[in-house]
Structures are given as C-alpha cells and as structure tokens.
Amino acid sequence: MTETQKIYDVVLIGGGIMSATLGTLISKLEPSWSIKLIERLDDVALESSNPWNNAGTGHAALCELNYTPETNAVIDTTKALAINEQYTVSRQFWASLVESGELPDPSAFINDVPHMTFVRGEANVDYLRRRYELLRAEPLFATMEYTEDPAVIFEWAPALMVGRDKTEKVAATRVASGTDVDFGSLTRQLVQGLIDNGAVVRLGTEVAGLRQQRDGVWQVATRVASGPEQGRKNVTRARFVFVGAGGGALPLLQKARIPEIRGYGGFPISGQFYRTDNPDVVAKHHAKVYGKALVGAPPMSVPHLDTRIVDGKPALMFGPYAGFSPKYLKTGSFLDLFRSLRLHNIVPMLAVAKDNFDLVSYLVGQLLATPKKKFTELQSFFPEADPADWRLITAGQRVQVMKRDPKKGGVLQMGTEVVAKADGTIAGLLGASPGASVAVPVMVDLLKKCFPARVDEWTPRLTELVPTYGTRVNDSQEKADEVLAKTGAALRLGKAQRHQ
C-alpha cells in the first residue's frame, strides 16, 4: 500500500504541545491506531511551544491577576479555580508518564520556581489582599502566603526591593510550589514517544489544503517546504484530523470549509521580552512575578518578571511588550491576516474593535513606546536593572480570537477554544493563554467531543493516566494535598507547607 492509499486513523497538523499531547493520549487509549504528525518547520516546538516564544509559566492562576477580575468591587475567582484545576490534570498526566518511564527526566521540562504577585499603590494592595483572602480558603491555593512587609518581600525576591523607594506601598503573594515549564522540551519528548510507538512524523512539510470525501475520510494535501525535495506534493488520508497549528489553525480550518468556523476571526499580536543570561543578574531573582495589567491590555500582555530554566540553564525574562505584525505565526506570511478575512468574520472583527477601544489604545501606545520607556517598565519590577545586561528578543505570535455574537455582533474570546465539525472528523484549537499549561484537559475534552461513543470505553484508562479524572481536586483539602504531593514526588518537585 502506498502512502497515498493508506488511511491513517489520526493526522495531527502542527508539531507543538497540543498535537504532541493529543497524539500521546490517543496512543494510550487506542494503541492500534495509526498516527501521522505533519509540521511545516524543520523541527517540532519551534513556534508557540518554544520556551523563548512564550512565558513558560506553567499557568496555574496562582499569580496571574487577569484570572481574578474585579467588577463593582467584587473579585471573581471562578476562572482562577478552573485553570488551577486544569493544570493539576496536566501535572497528573505528566507524572503518569514519568512513572511509566516515558518521560525519564522530568527536570528537563519542569522545575520548582515560586509564583508571586507583586503590586504597588494603595488600591492595588487592597485588591491583592482581598484576592488572597478569597483564594487562601480554596484547597488548591492553601499554600499561598501574603505580605505587605518590604522585608518579607525582600526575602522572597530581593531584586524587587533593592533600590525601591521605601515609602512606596507594596504587597505580594507567593506560592513556593509554583513551577517553570519548558514546553519545547516536553513536546520533543512526547513526539519521540510517538515515534517510538510507530507514529510517522513529517517535518518541513506544509499543509496546502483539506478536503473531506463523501465517505467522511479527509484528504490532507501537503507540499515539502524545505530540503532537497522542496515543492514535492503529496496527499495523506485520515479518518480524523486535528489542527493544532497555533496561529495557523484558523486559516487551515477555513480551508477545510467546515461550517463551524464561520464567524471566527483572528487578530495577531506580536511582542518582545527583555532577556538576560548574565549569571550575576540571574542569581538575584528566582521566581515568576506577575503584576497588574495596564488598562486595555490583553491577557497575554500582563507584565511579569520570570525565571526561566531552559536546557538546564536559568535565565530571566521580562515583558511582554505588545507589537503588531499581520503574521499568524512567527515564521508566517505578512498576508496571513488579510487572507483570513471573510464576509462572515469582518463584521464580528469590526464590532470587537468598536467595543474594545482600550485594547486598541494600548496596542498603539506599545507600538510608539521608546526603548527607554520599555526599560523603565522593567525597572518598575527590578529597580537596579542595568540596560547593559538585558537584550530584547522577539516573542511568538498570539492570535486573539474573535467570534460572532448575536447581541454585540462580535466578542473577544479569551483563553482557548475547540472548534470541531459536527461529525467529529476534524477539530482545531484556537486562542492563547493559558494554552500549553492546560493542554491535557483541553485535549481530553476534544476527544470527548469528537469521539462521544468511545468515552465510556476509555474512562478506565483515562483514570489510570489522570487519577482524579471526572472529579474535582479542589473539593477537599485532603484530596488536594494528596494529589499535589503525589505529582510533586513523581515530577521530583519540592514540597510546600500549607498555610495555617
């Protein structure tokens, strides 16, 4: 049987953490299924899953204030609780793979880095205090600490306080059991596991078209994007297709002509980070510290000073600084945005622009910001930062999803969203933060949506991989402590004492 004649059970488009996670789940649930992964670049995890293209936080809502919005003096913790619960699912899945020997060195992708929130000014201190009081009562947040004492903040993160005005009102929270995740390393390990189990991986291969046959099978038209066979065309057939191409997912789902993608648009946001690898500077700070977002800033633009551990080496990043590029991928085309425009998504996109003037103003302000102004923002976190030690790096592209709304015409969609054809034969993932950190529960939900008839059969195996599958860890302190302790031990993470 030739490659063109073969019908794969699953084709994964995109070599990032989402495809790697979904492929790994399927290989555990259906070991006999044939899997093919197609990536347009010459290696996996070079776009959004690359550690220098994203914040790498291991988003657990422990420190990100955009997950606890305040409206009319009421703080809503719903999203923070949901994201932390989701991240706990991801941790359990990774721990299962470590215990089975499939991820033999967890320190290659996950490490202890405390998660902190740091705010300045009376109003922000009051907000953080009230947020802490709400979250400390939740089992998964029980180790959170709070202080308004500059001396304690200095103990937690000295770089935040050295050189700061002693009269400035400040406050911070800390969860010592936070993590840093290198999703690039994790993706490569998962993809290697797929290859070891018989999956086919095609790198340097671009998907040119998607068409469903009358029998339901998808034809995935490809062309070689690089190398000696550049330009060679091929067709891969599949019973199920997942489009996990990051910012490139929207155009591919449009090419597939599925009705469910109608009304969806995407606005690309680029960005930059300051980065330092100077060991003397890096040694002054070991934490992920998030602040308060500027008015109108999108979720992925919350300022943060991050300790990163990539290939075993620590570094610091600060940002992001938003920018604009019409590309949907860092290595994409300047025509991406314009090619995605359709009659059915122009109105929703215009409606979002009209209703989100603060966002537009924020982006314009960021584009006009001088290097001096950008570095001043870094110094608001790290007062003694020296420009000689830091350099600007270009971050990955983020595509902010907009979709049709019957009342407003269009709404800005936060987070990630699965878009699937009604027959369950093709699905794609749109959106950004919290993204990679919740890859496992998002991909489990995708499987349930596309293969509803198999869910009952898969439940025992899913429960082996994620022991709390189908339940909530945050329902009891005993359960939360047990899960965090077990996954921490498997992933070789440190221990934190619960707040008393």
Topology:
Layout: E1 7-13, H1 17-29, E2 35-38, E3 70-71, E4 74-75, H2 78-99, E5 110-112, E6 115-120, H3 122-135, E7 145-147, H4 150-156, H5 158-161, E8 170-175, E9 179-181, H6 183-196, E10 200-202, E11 205-212, E12 218-224, E13 233-243, H7 249-256, E14 265-276, H8 279-282, E15 288-290, E16 304-310, E17 313-323, H9 336-339, H10 343-355, H11 357-368, H12 371-381, E18 391-394, E19 398-405, E20 409-413, E21 416-420, E22 426-431, H13 439-450, H14 455-465, H15 477-490
Parallel strand pairs: 1-2, 1-13, 2-10, 6-15, 13-22
Antiparallel strand pairs: 3-4, 5-9, 6-8, 7-8, 11-12, 12-13, 14-17, 14-18, 14-19, 15-16, 16-17, 19-20, 21-22
Discrete helix count: 15
Average predicted confidence as pLDDT = 92
Number of domains: 1
- Percent range for β-strand residues: 25-35%
Pfam families: Mqo
Pathway: Carbohydrate metabolism; tricarboxylic acid cycle; oxaloacetate from (S)-malate (quinone route): step 1/1
GO molecular function: (S)-2-hydroxyglutarate dehydrogenase activity; L-malate dehydrogenase (quinone) activity
Keywords: FAD, Flavoprotein, Membrane, Oxidoreductase, Transmembrane, Transmembrane helix, Tricarboxylic acid cycle
Quick recap:
Belongs to the MQO family. The protein has 500 residues and is of the alpha+beta class.
Give structural notes.
With 500 residues, the chain is α+β, with helices and mostly antiparallel strands. It has one domain (7-457): 3-Layer(bba) Sandwich (FAD/NAD(P)-binding domain). 33% of the residues lie in helices and 25% in strands. The protein has 15 helices and 22 strands. It has helices spanning 17-29, 78-99, 122-135, 150-156, 158-161, 183-196, 249-256, 279-282, 336-339, 343-355, 357-368, 371-381, 439-450, 455-465, 477-490; strands at 7-13, 35-38, 70-71, 74-75, 110-112, 115-120, 145-147, 170-175, 179-181, 200-202, 205-212, 218-224, 233-243, 265-276, 288-290, 304-310, 313-323, 391-394, 398-405, 409-413, 416-420, 426-431. The strands form four sheets. Strands 6, 7, 8, 14, 15, 16, 17, 18, 19 and 20 form a ten-stranded mixed sheet that branches. Strands 1, 2, 10, 11, 12, 13, 21 and 22 form an eight-stranded mixed sheet that branches. Mean pLDDT is 92; it is low at 496-500.
